[in-house]
Write a structure and sequence with these properties.
Helix 1 links the parallel strand 1 and strand 2. Helices cover about 55% and strands about 15% of the residues. The termini are far apart. By secondary structure, the chain is of the alpha/beta class. The chain folds into two domains: about 120 residues, 3-Layer(aba) Sandwich (Rossmann fold), CATH 3.40.50; about 45 residues, no CATH class. Helix 3 runs parallel beside helix 4 and helix 5 runs antiparallel to helix 6. The longest helix is centred in the last third of the chain and has 39 residues.
């Protein structure tokens, strides 16, 4: 499935320059120059990566990042900042951004940042499934400890996706 990359920036010249690179950027590019446009995309699409230009000193950018992460927590947000904006960059990272690119950058740097963000995004569901597996295993262990081995075994088979016929032998006597 093609990832969706959203570019949020007020600087239309910079946005046009980025869109010229669209052939070299992995994913389907969308762009928004206003907060309502960005929120509309977040309401309609599953956004994989968002690039947010925080170079202009407008406080709503940091609040927008918080709002976007609230709507789609798994989305990777990359900040685009100027070299001297350490404070704004740190505020953006605290708000939920996961990476930062300092402007100016070349296409290779942008492609690399997007590729890393995609890897982080794809790795997240596996972590959730590992957590689910551990929770399910702990619940099964609780049932087994209480003597309900059939339920425990059934839970583990369900978790593994085991399609073997159930073993109806009573193993408590062995």
């Amino acid at each position: 499935m093609t990832p969706i990359v959203l570019l949020i920036m007020r600087d239309e010249i910079f946005l046009r320059n980025l869109l010229r690179w669209s052939e070299e950027i992995p994913g389907e590019l969308r762009s928004a120059t206003t907060r309502p446009e960005a929120l509309k995309y977040y309401g309609e699409l599953a956004i994989d990566i968002t690039l947010v230009d925080i170079r202009e000193e407008i406080g709503e950018d940091i609040e927008l990042i918080r709002e976007l992460k609230g709507l789609q927590p798994a989305t990777e947000i990359i900040l685009l900042s100027d070299p001297g904006q350490v404070g704004r960059t740190m505020a953006g990272l605290r708000a939920g951004a996961t990476d930062e690119l300092t402007v100016p950058f070349d296409i290779g740097t942008l492609r690399g940042a997007i590729a890393e963000a995609l890897m982080r995004r794809r790795a997240r569901p596996r972590k959730r499934s590992l957590r689910r597996f551990i929770e399910q295993t702990m619940m099964a262990a609780t049932f087994a400890q209480a003597g309900d081995h059939a339920t425990a075994r059934g839970m583990m088979e369900e978790e593994r996706g085991d399609r073997r016929p159930p073993d109806n032998r009573d193993r408590s006597k062995t």
